[in-house]
Design brief:
184 residues, mainly beta, Porin, eight-stranded antiparallel β-barrel, 2 helices
């Protein structure tokens, strides 16, 4: 309850002060991501649909800071361990904070690089049935990793822009996305 009140106060302050809100932006994107898992005994990977939302502040045409939430999707696979067939799935989400350095070629088009860190939550599940015995094992983990990305942005007008980006979140996660931003 206290978090909702605090979030409402911050949002109302931002909306009430146009001068303060200038430089802030929000956005969303969708794309294809690579999700993989490899340990000593079980290894599988695949592509999944990924989507994310983000908010940021543009300090100058060349420098921004951004926070984001991303659902990396879910990969299902059939694997074998010691000749036992299994159904495996892997899903991941992340919360990230990063700094973006941009190079504007003109008022409409810019290229940028991203550097930051993300807290990645993964959930792996393995199920099998041997004779009448059903076994399911679930493993969840959270870790903080560095992230890097490159992208390009095209400004349609003062408030709306389109962007595409490739981001490497960890050794096992990456995303190629296309999205839109709205600047206040």
């Amino acid at each position: 309850m206290k978090k909702n009140i605090l979030a409402s106060l911050v949002l109302s302050t931002l909306l009430a002060s146009p001068a303060f809100a200038e430089g802030f932006y929000i956005g969303a994107d969708v794309g294809s991501g690579r999700v993989s898992n490899s340990d000593d005994s079980i290894s599988f990977s695949g592509n999944a649909t990924t989507f994310g939302v983000h908010a940021g502040y543009k300090f100058s045409p060349n420098l921004s800071a951004e926070i984001a939430y991303r659902d990396h999707g879910k990969v299902d696979d059939k694997i074998s361990y010691m000749r036992i067939p299994m159904d495996a799935s892997l899903s991941a989400t992340s919360v990230a904070a990063s700094v973006i350095a941009a190079y504007p070629f003109n008022e409409s088009f810019s290229a940028y690089g991203r550097l930051g860190f993300s807290s990645i939550k993964t959930k792996a599940e393995v199920k099998t049935e041997v004779k009448a015995l059903r076994v399911a094992v679930t493993s969840e983990s959270t870790e903080t990793r560095a992230l890097v990305g490159i992208g390009a942005q095209y400004n349609l007008n003062k408030n709306v822009s389109l962007r595409t980006e490739y981001t490497q979140y960890a050794q096992d996660l990456s995303a190629l996305t296309i999205g839109a931003n709205y600047s206040f």
